[in-house]
Fold:
Amino acid sequence: MIAQYEQQNILNLIYLVVLMIFVGVELISHVPSVLHTPLMSGANAIHGVVLIGAILVMGNASADDTLSLVFGTLAVFVGTLNVIGGFVVTDRMLEMFKKKPKGEKAS
Amino acid sequence: MMPYMEIGYLIGSVSFVVGLKMMGQPDSARKGNLVAAFGMAMAVIAALFFNSEGFHVINNLSYILVAILAGTVIGTLMAKRVQMTAMPEMVSLFNGMGGLSAALISIIEWRHLLNEAVNPERMSDMPAVSMGMYIPVIAGLIIGTISFVGSIVAWGKLNGKIGDFRFPSQQIINAVVLVAILGVAYLNYGEFNATQSSLYFYVTIALAVVYGLLFVFPIGGADMPVVISLLNSFTGVAAACGGFLYENKVMLMGGVLVGSAGTILTVVMCKAMNRSLMNVLIGMAGGNGGGSSTSASGGSVREVQGTDVAIMMKYASKVIIVPGYGLAVAQAQHVCHELENLLEAEGVDVKYAIHPVAGRMPGHMNVLLAESNVEYDKLIEMEHINPEFATTDVVLVVGANDVVNPAAKTDPASPIYGMPILDVDQAKQIVVMKRSMKAGYAGIENELFFHPKCGMLFGDAKASLQKLVNEVKAL
Structure:
């Protein structure tokens, strides 16, 4: 069944949220504008981690709960699309940058 | 007993951070993407084959594997087949899939919560549903749905299937819908096990769908990258809701990381266009239509012929090409590179001026030109190329419009006023390749076209460039 509500755990998770917000801001702040599109695409693939949730939801679904199984399978499918499609598109974009010698790291 | 599941999630979390960090540098960007992908694989394996007690194959594994396999095959095919020019809409579509996944998870979990709430064995002095469960479920549902619907609209807009759509007092209606969503969600919490609970739930979904539509419909096509970036961070937050729900740290970290990085990326993009985020969201650019904008139509447009342009360029000592979305749409990047080589062989100094938002997304144009083997050091960013226009003989604007519109500097009434532009009017001659006199994405007139130094070469960018190549060869 779903994990129990525990204040301590929630607080720990909130610590993580706050720290991650700072990490995210710090990582992106000084990136050349050339890389904005690939970065957006890469971040897009990373939030495909929602796939884990879809897998867990399937693990909780009982075999006679058809609606949960159908929706869950669909969630896994579209989550995988997000992950795989996201990483492959990003790779194709970044492939274009490989040949450059030193490149301008302007701004 | 080793906590394998936790270790898998830990590897996933760390590699997301490291991968994103590496993606911020041109040299390590591609590896960074692979690092993040590896982390994702580890996290998925941990979820499939381990639980907190150790090795444990998850229930319904066959369904899951089939769905993953189908998603992998279709996702790879879609991503491999898409044209480089269509990348932005592809990103938007995949983003929408993530939002849909989050929304579906919430729908299933909401049913679980309801089943528990109506369970007669439940202690009657306990609340029907705990806040700690209800908030992540309903927030994941709302944000995921908005992100899904919004991304699909953005996708449709970028590939031209959906036009702009505005009506009066749009912002007020949007705000009302948003308040209504929160209100209904709150009512649902208060009367969770009552009979109308399901009704509240469906109304919440319906309102979220409406909000997703209203949110993206009025925003002009030129601002789509900003919107996609914002929706991207929405999906991140939706994934993070799942992290709270399952107390799953990799989901939480990945989701929040994308949520915050995506938000900052959105702000940075807005800055590159010298717009505020509010300004973009309210749909200012291209908004108030023709009436108030300055009519430069007093002047007349000078049309030039390919032959003249070819001569002009061949005997120039310095040419700057300003590529825009028109070049991308016409798939003209290869011909453009050919023209560049021809001119270089004649001893002409050729460079490309890249506006931060050239194409449909920041960096989009670099990717397109790099694809056709244009050397990286020929692509000059705006702040470095602007001083060079004064010493340039010919500027060739290929399918760009708003990024060379002097109104951004001179006309405070213009919707793009304040956006940094390429100072092409400093050059001795300007040639603009365009299909017609139609306005650009911001939907406004461009005075540049009426400038005495400016000649218009009408036609499809690829055909025109091909003609130029032939003319230069023939000379």
